[in-house]
Design goal:
The chain has 9 helices and 5 strands; from the N terminus they run βαβαααβαβαααβα. It has helices at about 15-25, 30-40, 45-55, 60-70, 90-100, 115-130, 140-155, 155-165, 175-189, and strands at about 1-5, 30, 80-85, 110-115, 165-170.
């Protein structure tokens, strides 16, 4: 099972990915985690990324694509994977298509967790209250900015994958177990 989870910040992608990892025995590939692992392992791309991050700059698509490609070659990805946070743009989606084709792989599904922006803001504010504001991004201003970036850069992927016949949409605002059930029904049908 090779999946991409799409959805705005706070929609529950991380929560659902963890459940699917347990249920399907495939790894969750978060670009942030992959990047940190490549830096820690001091791979050539990891060292290049470290220099960029240390300067405070954003890592280019070329480096992110390369690091994701290396990670897809790992043994634990042979039975499948869940991409979370990648691709974020149409350019990255095109690169992923080429990468998978070169590896003789294809995506099984792209799952969009549909979520209402105002409800996401309400959830995050509540989470901040419940946790004592432990997360730096748990405030309305930061979340609204991240939602704007998602709408501009990542939301176009919904149409991209819909045209390829891979998109499955589920209600990300439902309770966690209902979202999980809807995802499983969508990807197993």
């Amino acid at each position: 099972m090779r999946l991409i989870l799409l959805g705005p910040p706070g929609a529950g992608k991380g929560t659902q990915a963890k459940i699917l990892v347990e249920d399907y025995g495939i790894p969750q590939l978060s670009t942030g985690d992959i990047l940190r692992a490549a830096i820690a392992a001091q791979t050539p791309l990891g060292l290049e990324a470290k220099a960029i991050v240390d300067r405070g700059d954003l890592v280019s698509d070329t480096i992110v694509n390369g690091i994701v490609s290396e990670r897809l070659d790992a043994e634990d990805c042979k039975p499948g994977f869940i991409l979370d946070g990648f691709p974020r743009t149409i350019a990255q989606a095109n690169a992923l298509d080429q990468m998978l084709a070169q590896k003789g792989m294809k995506l099984d599904a792209v799952v969009e967790l549909k979520a209402d922006a105002d409800e996401l803001v309400r959830r995050v504010i509540q989470r901040a209250k419940d946790s004592g504001g432990a997360r730096a991004d748990d405030n309305e201003e930061v979340l609204r900015k991240r939602l704007g970036v998602y709408a501009e850069q990542t939301a176009p992927l919904v149409n991209y994958y819909s045209q390829k016949g891979l998109l499955k949409t589920v209600d990300g605002m439902a309770p966690v177990d209902q979202v999980t059930s809807a995802i499983k029904t969508a990807i197993e049908s």
